[in-house]
Amino acid sequence: MSSQRINLRTPEVMLEVQSKVEQHYQSSLVEKIRAQGGVFAEGKTIFHLAKQFGFCYGVERAIDLAYAARKVFPDQRLFLVGEIIHNPEVNAQMEALGIKNLFGKDGYSEVDLLQPEDVVILPAFGAEISMIEKIKAKGCRIVDTTCGDVMSVWKRVRQNATEEVTSIIHGKASHEETRATASRALGTGKGHYLIVLNLEETDVVCRYLNKGGDREAFLKKFEGAISEGFDPDLHLQRLGVANQTTMLRAETEEVQRRLREAIQERDGSTANFRFFDTICGATQERQDALVDLMERSLDFLLVVGGYNSSNTTHLAEMGEKRLPTYFIRNQECLESLSQIRHFDLHARKEITSQKTWMMKPLGESLAIGITAGASCPNNLIEEVMMRVLELRQEEMIHKDGKSVSSN
User: Fold this and answer.
1) Does the annotation count 251 as an active-site position?
2) Residue 151 burial class via C-beta count within 10 angstroms: exposed 0-12, middle 13-18, buried 19 and up
3) Confidence (pLDDT) at 354
4) Bridge partners of 4?
5) What is the tally of helices (H) and strands (E) in the chain?
6) Could you give the strand order of the β-sheet that contains 334-336, starting from the edge strand earlier in sequence?
7) Is 142 a member of any domain?
């Protein structure tokens, strides 16, 4: 039984699809603010939008293809391998279109229940090779929305495997993209990988490179983040650094610098080390834009997006180092002038802050910075802005450009 990969991006299909996508996710107000330099003032409330934020090309393409799949196959069962992107509102919309997550609420895969006539969508992060093979064995049609930047990383790790170079992957071991990349790092069976989350874990690897150590303790430290049969005494001889595309560029560069230095110290040269820059361009643009935004005089920063979004989390990490920062899912998190629900990066959970998060009394000027990850649609940004104006009892601007009092 063979599966079929489908190209849905025909002009007649995409014309209708993009109209629906814009209706669901776009904001004419946000686009107008962007065109005017990213600053919008209403009364005493001033919003400063980052130059780059929200949907990237890869995310837009993935969503377009999911909508196109529903249009082309209106009567068939559609499944997603996980989430299309890491944004709860977008994934809820997928469900509303009748596109079911292949992983049930209990987290177990329903791939065994697939039928040949079913259509399966691979998400923007990609999918593990083992999962794709299972779907192919069922004979299902496959719609592949994997981002091109992710596939560029796969090319590098496959090359490493061919040359028996172990891939050190900077990323989150549980993240869908990293798991998909790790599966490609095995190549045809000769490859190995080790996933490092941060600089602390990188230093553990560097110390082992230079001084050796307790092999069993090393394996336990990286349990769940190494390839089957990984042996640090054998598989740390030749290294190639790759990364989850949504990590912080500066941290990935420091990971590779430390590993390169450790190999130089061990071998007297860097012949056994290689590195390719595979950070997503859109991720870097949003990080750079936030750096520029934080140069302005802001009272606080709102970062909008899904709590399980890696690139959005990194924006929140950057923000909290410079000014009061609140990582929120949507406008509903702004409960009142003195109460906000937001994701605590350190507690790793949503908390409620009982304080005057608006910083200043009504009637005094308030400057708010806003950014969003690559998986956050513009309509959520508009809704957040409207909610702030409502709470501050400012005049609200409607989508049609007319003004009405919020009182």
Assistant:
1) no
2) middle
3) 84
4) 141
5) 14, 19
6) 334-336, 339-344, 349-354
7) yes
Three-state DSSP class for residue 215:
helix
Secondary structure element (H or E) that encloses residue 301, with its range: strand 300-304
Sheet holding 193-196, edge to edge: 193-196, 166-170, 239-243, 273-275
Tell me, what amino acid is at 327? Answer: F
| Whether residue 384 sits in one domain with residue 351 | yes
Q: Which residue range is the domain that position 122 belongs to?
A: 58-146
The tokens for 62 are 């993935």
H-only helix segments in 245-377:
249-267, 281-293, 310-320
**Token pair 């934080």 is at which residue?**
294
pLDDT along the chain (407 residues), means of 10: 67 82 91 94 95 92 94 94 93 95 78 94 95 95 94 95 96 95 94 97 98 96 97 97 90 95 97 85 92 96 95 95 95 93 96 77 86 94 95 66 42
Residue 232 domain flag? yes
- Calculate the alpha carbon distances from 373 to 53, 137, 304, 384 in Å: 6, 35, 7, 14
**Are 63 and 138 found together in one domain?**
yes
In the prediction, which pLDDT does 359 show? 61
The enclosing H or E element of 19 equals helix 11-25
What sections of 326-397 are H helices per DSSP?
378-391
- Two structure tokens written together for 266: 């061990």
Residues 153 and 268 in one domain: yes
Decide if 379 contacts 25 (C-beta within 8 A): yes
Enumerate residues 6+ apart whose C-beta is below 8 A from 62. Answer: 84, 85, 123, 124, 145, 147
Catalytic residue among 89, 177, 201, 383: 177
H-helix or E-strand containing 28?
helix 28-35
Helix axis angle, 57-72 relative to 11-25, nearest 10°? Answer: 120
d(CA 33, CA 68): 30
- From the list 245, 241, 246, 243, the residue with the least C-alpha distance to 257 is 241
Identify each DSSP E strand in 65-177 by its residue range.
Answer: 78-80, 99-101, 119-122, 141-144, 166-170
- Residue 6 has a pLDDT of 66
Q: Give the number of other CB atoms < 10 A from CB of residue 71.
A: 15
Strand partners, 273: 239
Kindly state the tokens that stand for 94.
């997928």
pLDDT of residue 5: 66
Q: Are residues 157 and 237 in the same domain?
A: yes
CB 315 within 8 A of CB 287: yes
